[in-house]
Amino acid sequence: MTDSAELSPQRLGEDYFQSPLGYFSRLREEGPVTPVVLPHGDRVWLVTRYADVRAALADPRLHKDWASKLASPDWVPDEVTAYLSVHLLNADPPNHTRLRKLVSKAFTARRVAGLRPRVEAITTSLLDAIEARLAAGADTVDLIESFAFPLPVTVICELLGIPSRDQAQFREWSNAIVASSAEPGGFHTAGAAMYHYFTRLVEAKRATPADDMVSALIEAQDADDSLDQRELLAMMFLLLVAGHETTTNLIASGTLALLTNPVELDRLRADRSLLPGAVEELLRFTNPLNHATDRFTLEPVQIGGVTIPAREWVLLVTSSANHDPARFSDPGRLDIGRDTGGHLAFGHGIHYCLGAPLARLEGEVAFGALLDRFPALSLAADPATLLWRKSSLIHGLEQLPVRLR
Ligand code: HEM
């Protein structure tokens, strides 16, 4: 057993952002449970081996509700901080159970399957717009700006009932919220802007309800006391950010993975029945999230033979788990036919991704349509020059220039 006092934290730097998997493969060998310092100065513990990560994701000794359990009793949050802190990913049972029940009906596999025609229609119109740019003389496009971002954001905005004219604004806010490099105030400023936007939207929907999730949540709120105003706004915030930051990266990083592994790409082109399995392998291989969201200890907790002291933050590194050779053979090889059962890209346990069926649907539709529409799709940049976003949580490209003919 290792005494936690022996481990002195290193600061996460550029080597982490540009090649997190290389960084984690060293950690799995040298310090699978280890403290590090994040760019903004906070200390966290990283857990990097598959077996430890999976067990810890379902371990009730790792808590999420920091506002009630960790913050000092004298702490009085401002209105915006209070709302940012009461969503599912900051909740433990029984609050978590109550909140999740309110939205889980909208995200069952059956309900989501009903969205397929709409996801296909949005995909078709985005690909039409790309073709129009080609017809006007453009040879290359940034696949993120033209496809991987607008597809999931349009879908989640439509589900929630957010007008499409406001989507670009959301990208800016949501980027600021997940960026590690942003000055700490960036998170708060963007969170505040969303808070005011959502407050106005709820007022408008309360006056004129529509067939969307915000109206349904307002109805649930008005029917009994099960959801207060802060929780309603926080739910919208979480669904919006979680609903597009991740899927954008599945589509973009997944396309990059296919284009840099031509044998697998040809395999998929030749046999479309491989598509659902390919999406799972692309999730395992590319990991739109480097790690699960923050958890903390209230008492000393032993993980992988290391004791993490009380009141410490812990990050369970799902991407590292998905590349642990002890669980997936030859993990650095993309193999769209492999058995990916048990991959942790959507987490595990009570916080398992609520949007997993929707993300899978969007991935299948997006990859299928992209391959059908652009048989000559290729990279328009040397993969070594592509930059990854500076976020410890989100693993995604800044841009993905592609050539379409
Ligand atoms: C490829 C796309 C996606 C990936 C990789 C992903 C990944 C994850 C992961 C790893 C978690 C668990 C976090 C933790 O335990 O700390 C999670 C939770 C969650 N995800 Fe996703 N997600 C994706 C898409 C979506 C979409 C499309 C939505 C919504 C429409 C969504 C909504 C949520 C919500 C609400 C939670 C919190 C669940 C809870 O705490 O009970 N996600 N996601």
Q: What multimeric state do the chains show?
A: single chain
Walk across the major sheet and give the strand order.
1-2-3-9-6-4
* Structure classification: alpha+beta
Low-confidence stretches: 1-5
Specify the helix fraction band: 40-55%
Mean pLDDT: 91
The largest sheet, given as strand count, sense and whether it forms a barrel, is:
6 strands, mixed
Spell out the helices and strands N to C: EHHEEHEHHHHHEHHHHHHHHEEEEHHEE
| Rg calc | 21 Å
Gross morphology is globular
**N-end to C-end Cα span:** 57 Å
Ligands present: protoporphyrin IX containing FE
Question: What's the helix count?
Answer: 18
Based on DSSP secondary structure assignment, what is the total number of beta strands? 11
Q: What percent strand?
A: 5-15%
Task: Indicate the topology.
Elements lengths: L9 E2 L2 H5 L1 H11 L2 E5 L5 E5 L2 H8 L4 E2 L2 H4 L9 H6 L10 H10 L4 H5 L2 H20 L4 E3 H6 L1 H11 L6 H12 L5 H24 L5 H11 L5 H31 L2 H9 L4 H12 L8 E3 L3 E3 L2 E3 L4 E4 L1 H5 L33 H18 L4 E2 L21 E3 L2
Parallel strand pairs: 1-2, 3-9
Antiparallel strand pairs: 2-3, 4-6, 5-11, 6-9, 7-8, 10-11
Helix pairs in contact: 8-10, 8-18, 10-14, 11-12, 12-14, 14-16, 14-18, 16-18
The protein binds protoporphyrin IX containing FE.
The site of protoporphyrin IX containing FE (HEM) has 25 residues, from helix 14 and helix 18.
Description:
This protein has 405 residues and is α+β, with helices and mostly antiparallel strands. 51% of the residues lie in helices and 9% in strands. The chain contains 18 helices and 11 strands. The chain has helices spanning 14-18, 20-30, 50-57, 66-69, 79-84, 95-104, 109-113, 116-135, 143-148, 150-160, 167-178, 184-207, 213-223, 229-259, 262-270, 275-286, 318-322, 356-373; strands at 10-11, 33-37, 43-47, 62-63, 140-142, 295-297, 301-303, 306-308, 313-316, 378-379, 401-403. The strands form 3 sheets. It has a 6-stranded mixed β-sheet with strand order 1-2-3-9-6-4. Strand 2 and strand 3 (43-47) form a beta hairpin. Helix 14 runs parallel beside helix 18 (356-373). It is globular, with a radius of gyration of 21 Å. Mean pLDDT is 91; it is low at 1-5. Protoporphyrin IX containing FE (HEM) binds at residues 88-89, 100, 156, 238-239, 242-243, 246-247, 250, 288-289, 292-293, 318, 345-347, 351, 353-355, 358-359.
